[in-house]
Every structure is written in structure tokens, then in C-alpha cells.
Amino acid sequence: MKRLLPYFFAVTLLSLFAFGAKAAEKGAIRGRVVEEVGALPIPYAVISLFEATAEQPLLTIQTDENGYFKFINLKTGTYKVKVSYVGYTNLFVNEIIITEKDFDKNLGNLKLGNEQSNLNEVVITAPKPLVEFAADVITYNVGSSILAEGSTATDVLKNVPMVQVDIDGNATISGKRSTRVFIDGKPSDYMTSNIADLLNVLPSDAIEKIEVMTNPPSKYSGDGEGILNIVMKKGFKVGFNGNIGVTAGIQGNKNTNANASYRGKNYNLNGSAAYRQNIGIGTSESYRTNFFPDTTFYYNQFNNNRSESDGGNFRLGLDWDITPKQNLRLSTNYNINNSNSISGNDFYYINEALTPTRLRNQHNLGDGNSNNFVFNADYNLQTDTTGGKLTMGITLNTNSNSDLRSYNRTYAFPANLNPSLQQNDNEVSNRGLNFNLDYDKPVFNKRDQLEFGIAYNYRKNDNDLLVQNFNYQTEQFVTNQNLTNKFFYNENILSGYASYNYRKNGWGLKGGLRGEYTDVNFDLSTGTSYHVSPYLSLFPNVSLNHFFKKRYNFGATYSVRINRPREFALNPQVNNADTLNISFGNPDLSPAYTHQMDFSFGAFGQKWSFTPRISYSTSRGVIERYRTVKKNGVSESTFDNVGTNNSFAVMLIGNFRPTNKISANGNFSVIQSKYSSKLNTALNRDGLSLRASLGFSMQLPYKTAFESNLNYANNINAQGRNKGSINSSFGARKSFFKNTLSARISTSDPFGRKNNNSFNQGTNFTSQSYSTNNSSNVTFSLNYRFTKVKMNKVVVPPPPPAKP
User: Fold this and answer.
1) Rounded average pLDDT over 243-252
2) Could you state, in order of their start, the residue ranges of all structural domains in the chain?
3) Which residues contact 789 (CB under 8 A, 6 or more apart)?
4) Which CATH number fits the domain 25-127, given the four candidates 3.30.1490.20, 2.60.40.1120, 3.40.50.970, 3.30.1390.10?
5) What pLDDT was estimated at residue 514?
6) What's 794's DSSP letter?
7) For residues 410 and 407, what is the distance between their CA atoms, to the nearest angstrom?
8) DSSP string covering 225-266
9) What separation in angstroms does the CA of 570 have from each of 4, 207, 523?
10) Is the dihedral of CA 44, 45, 46, 49 positive or negative?
11) Does pTM surpass 0.70?
């Protein structure tokens, strides 16, 4: 891999310079972006210029303080323009022709309609840039990625800037310790017993975009230090349309998905279905040294595992414009997962003389299934002609998870140790209710925006764990009363917020305050009951943004966030799947509060953008896993408020597009973390975390495109470090039959299987772990769009008469 990478980058750079040389031309396209209601200018709207047949933008700029924009130095030819701004429907202008005699095209006022009241786009086939940047949000447009086709949400997240996905499929924002996952602006991570199960089956073809919110506004819950918002496709295209896709990989993984929508006069019906099969194979090694005053001994463990899983996802939605001022949106989501696994491990006990004294062999079998159902209803009412809007939403969810595992332990030596057989049956169910009522209204001639609202969240979790040990004399399973337990969790959160958004002369200032009243209680079947005293938390949120000289943007944000301990971290049920490495929750955890500040600077050229960010956060009562080793050599892992963590991060994010056929983007993060604990000096440590990614895409002849991504991560934690890991992916796509059929081939980690390396250290132990997974894969996808997309053309007005 090290030998190949220099050639790859050399070819890339040569291509960039070769395609980048162009002679300056005198053509120009200009215009002004205004609101449909009131015709007020919209500053900072994103304007993308495309050549008529191109899939990637040629140039991307922003409007100035008065909504004006202008592209210059254009050669003769046919172009199209896309106008987009958060909260408004995208506008596309087609067939803009520049000739030697007519080289200055004035598009006049381009009016953007509100996203809720105007669901029809002017033109719906123009592609979006892959990545869009703002002061406190990064938008990844899934439909613009070749590698995203025929995959799942988990696969897509791996290539989103600033996002890292761990080996278990859990996604986090770089530099943010706790990340929440939302779907269509509503929380989804607490609606299922395992968010990774949902993301692994959610088809990418049903996703429109993913928003990375580093500083979520006051409208969102104060939980977590950042939000990943997955926005699903709504299908607001006139008539009946949709697509069907199939994907297969050489490892045996399969994916099929279909989605369709019908847009009538005042309603839209949409639905999707997907089915996935996946095979996972991996090996791991761990070496632990145990230090005690009178002796030192070692544990070496070697593991192998194989898992097979399959699951389906089904979505239905209705969007109904009851009247011109009223809209009702209903949606349901159901997904199901099934899995089975087989694994084994060899555990060596080694004394101080480095002589193995015991070898334990363990054979594990697992069989699990889960299902999740969510119902959403949102009602929108335009309260006046100036843009006031009332929104009421409710979300109901229920899910269950069943996991049956067996552990068969035998000893190769010494011969006098008896075997054991254990069976764990874990039944988990969740139920939840979310309600929100929001009102927002433009004020002062629609210059500013006022928002306020209330919300109520209820969650209930039941966790029933039955542990049985096999009695070899009676040949029956007997309940283990020490490990068997039931855990009941109830959470109520009542919230209210208000925010104000001020805009003038290129300045934007938004301030908000959110208050949350939390009441939590949980019980154990052993009779132990816990009731956390209700507490009120306040979450201020301030953001400042300034756009100047038509190409620079400065942003600064400050917010307070909370990380509440929930059932997984609180549940004291013991997991002894490995009797020498047990884990359990901590019912005495307290919430952790984080103060975070971000500073960003954006510079935009006709062919490039550069947006460095500086972030600082300080957290008290940080919740992390903490491991201790007892005198008998048993490692106990639990959660604890390990102390404070101060984090300083520098993030460099850039994009370079020398031509309409080539695009490169990259981001690099350096994060300095410093842990300190007055309770345990072993947790006093500091170090650097490094994360980087590089993306490259190219449009080739004959409707063919190429895309590649390279990602690297090296992270510190409270007790050690997850050492550097690299993963890469490459893909190529070709379109047929007027873009109705596309074929894609892609490969992930072609240079070798993914390796993970971690180091942990405590007061009396050191541990080193290595793991390898079968991430190397080649997949082939076919996608068919079974209807022709309808396009409405915009008549381009002639340029104004020349002044005498």
C-alpha cells in the first residue's frame, strides 16, 4: 500500500494540472436571489453553475449581502444554474446559452419559495455538490456520491466529513465525545436497543442528505455534543417515479432496495423497501500484563468469529397540503434484523516465569433478532401572510430485541478442571413518545427570525436477563440467581426554548436558550430502586456569522450540552460472556456537561474553498468505560464519571474543483485531549488524536464516473489509545439508456483487511489488543429508474438594454 499511494497521488496531481489549464473567457451569468413572498434579498445563498450535460458543478459561489451573484470568465456554450438555501426549495435554471454576440446573461430576480409551502422544484434532475459547508453544519448530499449507491447508512457515514464509524457501526463526530443520530430532525438513537442495527439496514438510496451539526440550534435537545441528521427522500417530483436497485459482493453480502413516489395536485405518497444480507469474519488477539506487589502474570487471548445477518426496512409516507396554509406529513418506518454468530477463543494463563499454567477453550453461539416500529405525524400551519408558521409533531416508537447466547468452556490443561456450559437469554423492549410544538415567525420586514417551542419526551426500557448454568449430573439448566436480573427504566423530559436570528449587512447573529426538566427512575428485580432527583438544565446557544468581500465567511459559536447516562450505562447487570473480562453498568452515574466553542473561517474561490475550524470544549463528569483488574486477575469494566476533559481541536476542510469534471475534497483534524481526575490519578493523561480523509471524483467520457476515498483515525481515550487505522474505497459508475440504468463497481479496503490496534493502561495492568475484519470486498450494483423525470423549464429574460 505504501508503494502504491505515491503513484496514486502523483497521477491525481498530474490530472489536476492537466485539466486545470484553461484560457480566460469573457462570458458572464448574473442575477439576484430573493424570497418568493416579499421579494426580500437572500444573502449567502449557494449558487452552482453546471455545463449543460455535466453531473458535477463547474463553479460554486454565494450571493452577497444584497442577494446578487455573478459568474465571470465563461467560455461560449450552454449552462444551467442551481440556487439553494436552507429552508427553501431548490431552484434550477436550464438552457442558459452564451455566444460570442450574447455573452452577458442577466437572469433577473430568482425567487425561492418556502420549503414547506412550495414542494415542487423548477427542475429536479440537476445534481448537488457532494459536500456543502456552513458555519455550524456540513451537508453531505448522498445522491451525488458514487460509493453511496446500493449501500446502507453505515457505509455512507464512513465517508462523511468529520464523521467516524467504529467497528460496531456506531458513528461519532470528530472531536465530539457523544453524538446523537436523528432522522428527519427527530431522535432515532433512543428508539432502538441498538442504533447500529437501524443504520446497517437503512438503504442509502432512500437518503437525500446527511447533516453534521457541530453546534445544534436550541430547537434540538441538549443531549449529546453533536447531531448527525439523516434526511430521507420525500419524493416531491411531479407524477409517478422511483427506482429499483440490487447490490452483491464477493463476500456473500447482498442488498436489494426499491422506492417510489407519486405526486398529485396537493399530496405526495412515497414508500421504500430494502432487504440486506451480510457476512462478517474477524480475528483478534489481546495481551494483558497484571502487576501486583508479590507477582506478575499474563493473560493471552486469541479469538475468531463469524456472523451472518439479514434484515429489512420498510417506509411509507404521506405529505398532504390540506389547504394552501396547512400541511400534514405522516410517515412510518419498520425494520427487522436477524443474526446468528459462532466464535471461539483460546485463553492462556502465563506465570511470572512465562510458563503457561492453564489453557481454556471457549465456544460461543449466538442467535438474535430485533424489530423496530416508528410513527411520525407533523402538522404545519401558516398563521399569517408574513411567514409565521406553527408546527406540531408527535413520534411514537416501540421496539424489541431478543438475544440468546451460549458459552461452552473446557480446559486443555490442567486436566482436573471441570467444563462449564452457560446460557444467557436477554429480552429488551423500548417504548417512547416525543411531542413538540414550535412557532417561528419572520419579524422586522422578514429581516429577522423569532422561534420558540415546547417538547415532551418519554422513554421506557425493560431489560430481562435470564442466566442459566448446565448441571452435568442432572443434565438440566439451572437458573443462576446471582446473574439473573430485570431492569426497568423510565425517563421524562419536559423542554422549552426560544431563539432569535438577526441578519443585517452581511452579519448574522443567533441566540437561544433551552431549558430541560429531567425526571428519571429505574428499578431492579432484586428490589433495589433508584430515583434520580429531578433536575433543571439550561442550555444557552449563540452563533455569529459574517460574510464579507463576497468570498469570505467568519463564524463563531458557543453552546452547552449534556450527556445523560441512560439504561445501557446504568444497568448493573453483569455480562460474563468472558469470565475473566466481565462488564456491567454503574447506577450511580451523574450527567456530564460540556461547554463548547467553535470558530470557523471560510474562503471561497471560483474553483476552490477552504474552511478551517478551531474548536475548544471542556467537560465535567465525563462518562467513559473504566477498567480495573482484581487480585484474582478478573478484569472488571464499567462506566464512570472519570473526571474532566479539556479538548482543543484544529480542523482543516477544503475542496478543489479545477474543472467541471474533477473534484477533490479533504479534511484533517488534530485534537488535543487532557483528562484529569482527583479520584484516580491513573486517569490523568493527555495526548493527540489524529483524523484525516481524502476524496477524489472524476467525470469520464461515455457517461462514466470515478470516485475514491481514503480515511485515517488515531484516537486517545481515558485509559489509552485506539491506534491508527486506514481504510479506503474506490468506485466507478456508468450510465445507460438516457441515465435510466446505471451500473457501479466498487471496492473497499483493496490493500488489505481492516486492522485495529488499541492500548489500555490502569493502575495494575497494561493491555494491548489487535483485531482484523473482513472489510476487503468488491461489490457490483445495478440501479434502474423506472420513470422519466419531469422537467419544467425557466424562461431566461433577455439582458437589460445597454445604457446610452
Assistant:
1) 89
2) 25-127, 239-785
3) 124, 125, 237, 241
4) 2.60.40.1120
5) 97
6) -
7) 10
8) SEEEEEEEP----SEEEEEEEEEEETTS-EEEEEEEEEE-SS
9) 48, 33, 11
10) negative
11) yes
Q: Nearest to residue 782, comparing CAs of 250, 156, 256, 130?
A: 256
Please report the DSSP string for 405-420 in residue order.
EEEEEEEEESTTSPPE
Report the alpha-carbon distance of residue 670 to residue 466 in Å, rounded. 45
CA distance 453 to 292: 57
Q: Are 46 and 85 in contact (CB under 8 A)?
A: yes
Length of the chain: 804
Q: What is the pLDDT of residues 174-201, one digit of tens each?
A: 656 678 888 887 777 655 555 666 676 6
From 134, 113, 282, select the one nearest 214 (Cα to Cα): 134
488: burial class by Cβ within 10 Å (0-12, 13-18, 19+)? middle
Residue 128 phi, psi (nearest 5): -100, 155
Amino acid at position 152, single letter: T
In the sheet that holds 104-112, the strands lie side by side as 68-74, 27-35, 104-112
For 157, the enclosing helix (H) or strand (E) is: helix 153-157
Radius of gyration, CA atoms only, the chain: 28
- The 3-class secondary structure across 522-578, one letter per residue, is EEECCCCEEEEEEEEEEEEEEEEEEEECCCEEEEEEEEEEEECCCHHHHCCCCECCC
Question: What mean pLDDT value characterizes the chain?
Answer: 82
Q: CATH code for 239-785?
A: 2.40.170.20
CB of 42 closer than 8 Å to CB of 112: yes
Residue 538, classified by CB atoms within 10 Å of its CB into exposed (0-12), middle (13-18) or buried (19+), is: exposed
Name residue 438's beta-bridge partners. Answer: 391, 453
* Under 8 Å between Cβ of 393 and 422: no
Residue type, 98: I
Give, for 755, the enclosing helix (H) or strand (E): strand 754-761
The reported pLDDT for the residue numbered 105 is: 87
pLDDT in tens, 367-424: 999 999 999 999 999 888 777 899 999 999 999 999 999 999 999 999 899 999 999 9
